[in-house]
């Protein structure tokens, strides 16, 4: 049965997107600090955290691959950018607005019965569910959070490599990031090209949309390789 591997990239909405009350709420912890240096440092930390919350950030890219064929597409926000004209295993498709991007994602997702992600249960899935609701984009698959201790329809590799957090934060199965797992298993890290998720805001501001899309695709390619390794060596452990 068809399985979709996907990953999203997000970027914080500008502070002017929020009204005065919302900004006061977001930066309240920083504004309580008396020391100017500490206050500005905490505000910078909060600005970075805004990338992580669907009420303060937007989806700027979704990369998708069919687990069996490794074919797929990358949807990304862009201005005045044409998509790939030639046939290719993975197509890059620019979108003018976030709602268009998410709508196109759900059109693809409805064709798949199963998905695999890295930390999708904790981040990607709830993020795109909530952004869809905020933008009133119909969700075609509402069963991806489901029962945590199962791999269908959603296999979250961050859960699998920690055996659902069996040993806590410091035990043998403690959780590592995707980059660390890839290097441990001899898989090319998506960060090997010098771009990380921390660079997305800057790349977006510089209108380097294709760089974001290519980084997101590398994340998904690494996730696919890690999924195949898990399936061959670890699937079925209880």
Topology:
Elements: E1 3-12, H1 20-31, H2 36-49, E2 57-66, E3 72-77, E4 90-95, H3 98-109, E5 114-117, H4 120-135, E6 154-156, H5 157-160, H6 178-184, H7 200-205, H8 209-233
Parallel strand pairs: 1-5, 3-4, 5-6
Antiparallel strand pairs: 1-2, 2-3
Helix pairs in contact: 1-2, 3-4
Describe, in plain words, how this protein is organized in 3D.
By secondary structure, this protein is an alpha/beta fold. The protein is 40% helix and 16% strand. The protein contains eight helices and six strands. The protein has helices at residues 20-31, 36-49, 98-109, 120-135, 157-160, 178-184, 200-205, 209-233, and strands at 3-12, 57-66, 72-77, 90-95, 114-117, 154-156. It has a six-stranded mixed beta sheet with strand order 4-3-2-1-5-6, with helices on both faces. Strand 5 (114-117), helix 4 and strand 6 form a beta-alpha-beta unit. Helix 1 (20-31) crosses helix 2 and helix 3 (98-109) packs across helix 4 (120-135). The longest helix is centred in the last third of the chain and has 25 residues, at 209-233. The radius of gyration is 19 Å and the shape is globular. The protein starts with a strand and ends in a 5-residue tail after the last helix. 31% of the residues are buried.
Considering DSSP H and I runs of 4 or more, what fraction of the residues is helical?
40-55%
How much β-strand is present in the residues? 15-25%
Q: What's the quaternary structure here?
A: single chain
Radius of gyration: 19 Å
Largest sheet: 6 strands, mixed
Coarse shape: globular
Strand order of the largest sheet: 4-3-2-1-5-6
Structural class category: alpha/beta
Report the average pLDDT across residues: 94
Write down the secondary-structure element order: EHHEEEHEHEHHHH
Number of helices, where a helix is a run of at least 4 consecutive DSSP H or I residues: 8
Distance between the termini: 23 Å
Total strands: 6
């Amino acid at each position: 049965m068809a399985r979709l591997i996907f990953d999203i990239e997000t970027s914080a909405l500008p502070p002017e997107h929020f009204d005065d009350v919302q900004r006061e709420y977001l930066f309240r912890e920083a504004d309580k600090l008396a020391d100017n240096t500490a206050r500005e440092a905490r505000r910078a930390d909060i600005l970075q955290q805004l990338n992580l919350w669907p009420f303060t950030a937007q989806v700027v890219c979704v990369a998708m691959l069919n687990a069996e064929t490794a074919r797929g597409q990358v949807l990304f926000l862009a201005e005045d950018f044409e998509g790939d004209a030639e046939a290719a295993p993975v197509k890059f498709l620019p979108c003018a607005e976030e709602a268009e991007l998410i709508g196109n994602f759900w059109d693809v997702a409805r064709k798949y019965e199963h998905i695999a992600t890295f930390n999708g249960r904790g981040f990607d899935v709830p993020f795109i569910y909530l952004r869809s609701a905020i933008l009133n984009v119909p969700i075609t698959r509402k069963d991806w959070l489901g029962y945590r201790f199962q791999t269908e329809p959603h296999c979250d590799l961050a859960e699998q490599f920690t055996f659902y957090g069996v040993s806590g934060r410091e035990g043998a199965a403690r959780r590592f990031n995707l980059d660390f797992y890839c290097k441990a298993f001899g898989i090319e890290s998506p960060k090997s090209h010098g771009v990380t998720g921390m660079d997305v805001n800057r790349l977006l501001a510089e209108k380097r949309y294709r760089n974001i899309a290519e980084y997101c695709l590398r994340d998904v390619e690494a996730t696919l390789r890690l999924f195949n390794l898990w399936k061959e060596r670890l699937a079925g452990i209880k």
